[in-house]
Specification:
Length: 346
């Protein structure tokens, strides 16, 4: 009997460790039951993965949800699915290509100029999704902007405007979108901006002399880390500039999940990663990433202090202990863009 004790102990330890690892990388389900009726939420990249699950959960909580996606067909399908599952008909699809400055400006203009978002009835749906109360103040506002969309370790592609793809989509696109919607967010205060970053920002280094990787051999991992560090730096500086406006800005690491974000990495190909990430998939009912959910709430209790084991920061604009994310010069420099006149001044 004694000869089985050691192997069984080792097996038990391995199984227990795997269970704990699953729970750690998933971040857990959001425990809050807060509802958000009357709140308008924009979620970028919401047709799949964490963005879709976040939109689904916030729709359950009664918000008016705008899914902003590059592929409008997939976006409309996701919106229809969310409406059917939640019976919340204030879920709408809008086209937004973060790799196109023109698309970003068009999206922001529609949001700023329209009091209500109108979604036409699609085949198979029995109810109209035209807002029954056009021009109500609550629907003319944006209370929560979740900058979720991202690309990860793609080949050396460039955006429509010539920027390196990962920096262009993950940071520059959201930078422009956020600034274009700032007046709307300020008018809707208390409001919130949630920027999805990554623990990968810790390994990031921003080369301000070669942001687009035109002078160096392209490194997909380094480019991704650079883009996520840029998000954290942007969050800290924007938070400082918005003090006193009623707009709270947070960056977070949402945990690890099996989503389309990793399609260029092969990270789901091994048995171990599949076992671990399957458990942290955001597609299960009620399993909204804890960090995203908690940062969405606009109660006064969460205006100044937000903590989660998987967030980058402990409060508005904080970005952890990465010395690179605390450099005052970098914080200001990240708000300026190498191509003058491309972005709005801020």
């Amino acid at each position: 009997m004694n000869r089985y004790i050691l192997p069984l102990s080792a097996l038990g330890t391995a199984v227990g460790g795997a269970v704990l690892l699953k729970d750690f990388v998933a971040g857990g389900a959001c425990p809050s039951k807060t509802t958000i009726p009357g709140k308008t939420v924009i979620v970028t990249g919401a047709n799949t993965g964490i963005g879709k699950q976040t939109a689904l959960e916030l729709a359950r909580r009664g918000g008016t949800i705008i899914l902003a996606c590059r592929d409008l067909e997939k976006c409309e399908a996701a919106a229809k699915e969310i409406r059917g599952e939640t019976l919340n008909h204030r879920v709408n699809a809008r086209h937004l290509d973060l790799a196109s400055l023109k698309s970003i400006r068009e999206f922001a203009a529609k949001i700023s100029e329209a009091g209500c978002i109108i979604t036409p009835v699609t085949e198979g749906e029995t109810e109209s999704h035209i807002c029954p109360h056009p021009c109500l103040p609550e629907e003319e506002r944006v209370h929560i902007l979740i900058n979720n969309a991202a690309v990860m370790r793609c080949p050396h592609w460039t955006t429509e405007d010539g920027f390196e793809m990962q920096l262009g989509v993950n940071y520059l696109g959201h930078f422009l979108l956020t600034n274009l919607l700032l007046d709307k967010l300020k008018a809707s205060a208390p409001s919130r901006i949630i920027n999805l970053s990554s623990l990968a920002h810790v390994a990031g280094h921003i080369d301000f002399e070669d942001l687009n990787w035109e002078k160096r051999k392209y490194d997909t991992k380094a480019a991704y880390c650079q883009s996520k560090l840029a998000v954290v730096l942007f969050t800290k500086e924007l938070s400082r500039r918005l003090q006193g406006t009623g707009v709270t800005v947070n960056a977070l690491h949402p945990g690890v999940a099996r989503t389309e974000l990793g399609r260029h990495t092969g990270m789901h190909s091994s048995t171990f990663s599949s076992f671990t990430l399957d458990a942290s998939s955001p597609h299960r009912p009620g399993e909204t990433p804890r960090t995203v959910c908690r940062h969405c709430h606009t109660s006064p209790r969460r205006e100044t202090r937000l903590r989660s084991r998987t967030t980058d920061g402990g409060g508005s604009g904080k970005a952890g202990n990465n010395v690179k994310a605390s450099n005052a010069g970098h914080l200001k420099q990240i708000m300026a863009h190498p191509r003058k006149g491309t972005f709005c001044s801020c």
